[in-house]
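I hope you will forgive my troubling you with a question about protein structure. Could you please explain, in whatever detail you think fit, how the structure tokens follow from the sequence? Thank you for your consideration; the sequence and its tokens are set out here.
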Amino acid sequence: MDHNVSVFKPYPFKIGQKIRIEGSKRGGDWEVLDVTETKVTLGCPISKREVNWDRFCYYSEDRNMQWPAD
């Protein structure tokens, strides 16, 4: 039976990328300084603060699909 399912995927960060995070305690403007399989390091262009966070997922799309998957 198909259901409307929200699909989340790890965001493919790239070093040097300029990003803006909205609607989160991590909100603000950031530059991607480093990326590993499990962590992303971001730098604030204003305060020069650097943070190292677990990679996080973003909403990607809604799909009509089987849920739960086998």
Remarks:
- The beta strands are 2-10, 18-21, 28-35, 39-43, 50-54, 57-66.
- The mean pLDDT is 89.
- The radius of gyration is 15 Å.
